[in-house]
Design goal:
Elements (H helix, E strand, L loop, with lengths): L4 E2 L2 E2 L29 E3 L7 E4 L4 E3 L2 E4 L6 E4 L2 E2 L3 E2 L6 E7 L2 E6 H8 L4
């Protein structure tokens, strides 16, 4: 299949590739670049459990977690949490868990606690 042309010149794969795409082909140039100056800090009171970034992402840190009613422990790998939006004011909110109990916190509040300006 011939690649589409723009102003008489062949189109490169820098962006949307239209009919020239193969099935399942990803166009990586459309993905945003991750921020290069992103800084991560642990959340005070949640050290060893969670950290927050300067861009407002909240991450659970890797740790071992005791399994309820068992002697064994399981390994929890860290991941970036997906925030929900609070219905009353639309702010981003995450739930932080410790010892089986959840605590709802806004991302803005966690960023302020970690020393970032919002």
């Amino acid at each position: 299949m011939k690649a589409p042309e723009i102003n008489g010149e062949p189109r490169t794969n820098a962006g949307w590739c239209g009919d020239a795409c193969e099935p399942g082909q990803e166009v990586l140039s459309q993905l945003p670049d991750p921020p290069r100056d992103e800084i991560w800090r642990e959340i005070p009171g949640w050290e060893g459990y969670y950290s927050v970034s300067s861009t407002g992402q909240v991450m659970s840190l890797p740790r071992t977690v005791p399994v309820q009613n068992q002697v064994s422990r399981k390994y929890g790998r860290g991941r970036v949490l997906r925030p929900a939006y609070r219905a009353s004011d639309g702010r981003k909110m995450v739930f932080l868990y410790r010892a089986g109990k959840g605590y709802g916190r806004t991302v803005e509040q966690l960023m302020r606690d970690a020393g970032f300006s919002t």
